[in-house]
Amino acid sequence: MSAHRDNKKTTAIDILARKGGEPLVCLTAYTSLTAQLLDENTDLLLVGDSLGMVLYGLDDTLGVTLDMMIAHGKAVMRGSSKACVIVDMPFGSYQESPEVAFRNAARVMKEVGCAGVKLEGGVEMAETVEYLARRGIPVLAHVGLLPQSVNTAGGFRSHGQDKQEADRILADAVAVAKAGAFATVVEGTVEPLARKITETIDIPTIGIGASPACDGQILVTEDLVGLFTDFTPKFVKRYADLGQQIADAAKSYSDDVRSGVFPGPEHCFAMRPGADDDDSADD
Ligand code: KIV
Predict the structure, then answer these.
(1) How far is the CA of 273 from the centre of ligand 1 (A)?
(2) Which of 34, 106, 269, 271 sits in a 20 to 30 Å window from 50, CA-based?
(3) Is the pLDDT of residue 1 over 60?
(4) Is the minimum distance from the CB of 64 to ligand 1 under 6 angstroms?
(5) Which residue out of 187, 199, 222, 266 is catalytically annotated?
């Protein structure tokens, strides 16, 4: 029996090998269509638990469940053929113990077929990262600003402003790298800290709001394309204005429906010639 592996797909090992090389291009994806549109131009697609806020309108990521992540992970896998797909472990699915983390991460790997999982945390999560990595689950770590700890870590703000906090975050990055993570997200940190982390650890750093000093960058795709209604973080560069385009399209559609312009004859199905008189032919 010969095992088949899709060798076009980027793996966690391929991402690890990019340390210090051409910058890694990473984006979030939550749906099959988005994955199809992004796949060609990205190295890594993250099914981020940010989907709770972006798609479901939650105030933070804490309400996201494992079932939600699995459903969206499967959709993204259907839409991608080349990028390395990583699925976020949601709040409560991995913090309790390495064993619980393994059980839930293994379920994600089996049901989604993704290349690995991401989990938030540094020194306190190193044992779990090692437990998963040693048992065949590639782990993307996440240090700096940790959205799942928003209630205990003081909200969405830049990290590493003072030496004590910068030293702690550097220690987090060193711990997860030593534990066997294949890369780490560095979120919301000042540039000197992102640079120090990138120079110190031997796995790629993927920055979000963490300066160009990282080995790669990630953004939430909806932020990149302007598909939101309110706040844009400082670190986001907007490349399109899809939110406004959608609102404009809805306005034009509503004007056309109300004035009777849509649907026009070109949008209507016509009867085949003679199709309406053959019933009476037999009578
Ligand atoms: O959930 C997410 O989308 C993330 C990225 C912002 C890194 O963790």
Answers:
(1) 57
(2) 106
(3) no
(4) no
(5) 187
Whole-model pTM? 0.93
Q: Are the C-beta atoms of residues 239 and 255 closer than 8 Å to each other?
A: no
What are φ and ψ of residue 117, in 5° steps? -125, 160
pLDDT of residue 228: 82
Q: How far away, in angstroms, is 142 Cα from ligand 1 center?
A: 9
Expressed in angstroms, the distance from the first to the final Cα of the chain is 66
49 CA → ligand 1 middle, Å: 6
Between CA 69 and CA 65 the distance in angstroms is 7
Report d(CA 186, CA 122) in Å as an integer: 11
28, amino acid identity: T
For the segment 195-212, what is each residue's pLDDT rounded down to a tens digit?
999 999 999 999 999 999
Q: Is residue 148 within 8 Å of 91, Cβ to Cβ?
A: yes
Nearest CA to ligand 1 atom 8: 48
pLDDT for 155: 65
Give per-residue pLDDT as tens, 123-168: 999 999 999 999 999 999 999 999 999 888 766 678 888 999 999 9
Q: 179 phi and psi, to 5 degrees?
A: -75, -10
CA–CA gap between residue 278 and residue 169 (Å, rounded):
79
Greatest extent of the chain over all pairs of C-alpha atoms, in Å: 94
CATH architecture classification, 12-244: Alpha-Beta Barrel (3.20)
Q: Whose CA is nearest to atom 3 of ligand 1?
A: 48
120 lines ligand 1 (CB under 6 A): no
